[in-house]
Amino acid sequence: MDHSENSEQEKSEQGRADQERFPLFEKVRRNEAARMYIEAQNQATKALGYTEHGLAHVKVVADRTRYILETLGEEDHVIDLALTAAWLHDIGNIINRVDHSQSGALMAFQILNEMGVPAADTAQIICAIGNHDEGSGVPVTRISAALILADKSDVRRSRVQQQESDFDIHDRVNYSVTESQLKINQEHNGIKLKLHIDTRYGEIGDYFRIFMERMLLCKQAAKSLGLEFHLIINEMPLM
Ligand SMILES: [Fe+2]
Ligand SMILES: [Fe+2]
Predict the structure, then answer these.
(1) Ligand 1 centroid, distance to 155 Cα (angstroms)
(2) Residue 40 Cα, ligand 1 centroid: separation in angstroms?
(3) Which fold has domain 3-237?
(4) Based on C-alpha coordinates, what's the Rg of the chain?
(5) Which ligand is closest in space to the CA of residue 62?
(6) Is residue 181 within a helix (H) or strand (E), and if so which, with residue range?
(7) CA of 208 relative to ligand 2 center, distance in Å
C-alpha cells in the first residue's frame, strides 16, 4: 500500500469515528438547506465588501472550536453541540449583517426543530450562535466561549475576497496575516493567538484598530474557560 492509500484509509476511519462521536454535527453538515444558507450569506457578505464567511470559514471555526473543547476535556455531546453552532453561526448574514447572530440563532432554531433535535440541545446551540458577535455577544456558556475564540481568531490571507486595488482596512489586515495559530498551553491555563503579519500589507496598529473589540471579547471568553488570553504578533506579546 502506498502512502496516499494509507492516508485515504486513515481519513475515512477518522471520518467514521467522528460520525459516531458527533452525530448531530455530521447530520447538520449534510443538511442541504444549511449549506445553501452558508453559501448564500457568503455571497451577501462579499457584496458588502466583507471577508470570506462561507464554508471555508465555518470549517476553520468548527476545527478550532473542537480543538479548544477537546483540549479542555469536554465531553463529546457538548463538543457535538458546539460544532453544530460553529457550522451554523453566520447564517443570519443572509437576512442582514446587522444583528446576524440573533437572526442566525432563529434560523438555526427552525432548522434544528425540523430535524427533531431535543429542545435542551437546541437551546445550547442557539445560545452560542446568538452570543458570538462582538457588540452584543457575551460568553454565557462554555460552548459560546469556545465559539467566540474560534471565530474571532480566524484571520487569514485566504479570507480576502476583493481585488488588491479595492482593499479596505479589513482586507489589508487579513491579507497581511500569513500565519495564524491558536494554542492552549500544557497547564490548560492559557490560550495564545499567534499571528505572523507581513507588514508590507498591514500595520500591527491597523490590526488593533479593527480588532480591539474582538480581542477584548476573546479575553473575556478565555477567562470564562479558565484561560488567560495572549495575543502574540510577529513574536511580540501584545496582550
Ligand atoms: Fe458572525
Ligand atoms: Fe464567523
Answers:
(1) 13
(2) 14
(3) Hypothetical protein af1432 (1.10.3210)
(4) 18
(5) 2
(6) strand 177-184
(7) 18
Torsion of CA 6, 60, 164, 235, to 10 degrees: -90
CA of 102 to the centre of ligand 1 (A): 10
- List the chain pLDDT tens, one digit each, 239 residues: 455 556 788 888 888 888 899 999 999 999 999 999 999 999 999 898 888 899 999 999 999 999 999 999 999 999 999 999 999 999 999 999 999 999 999 999 999 999 999 999 999 999 999 999 988 999 999 999 999 999 999 988 888 888 888 888 888 888 888 999 999 999 999 999 999 988 888 788 888 788 888 999 999 999 999 999 999 999 999 88
Answer yes or no: are the C-beta atoms of 102 and 84 closer than 8 Å: no
Where do the domains of the chain lie?
A: 3-237
**Ligand 1: distance of its center to the CA of 210 in Å?**
15
What is the residue type of 140?
V
Q: Could you tell me the distance, in angstroms and rounded to a whole number, from the CA of residue 57 to the centre of ligand 2?
A: 7
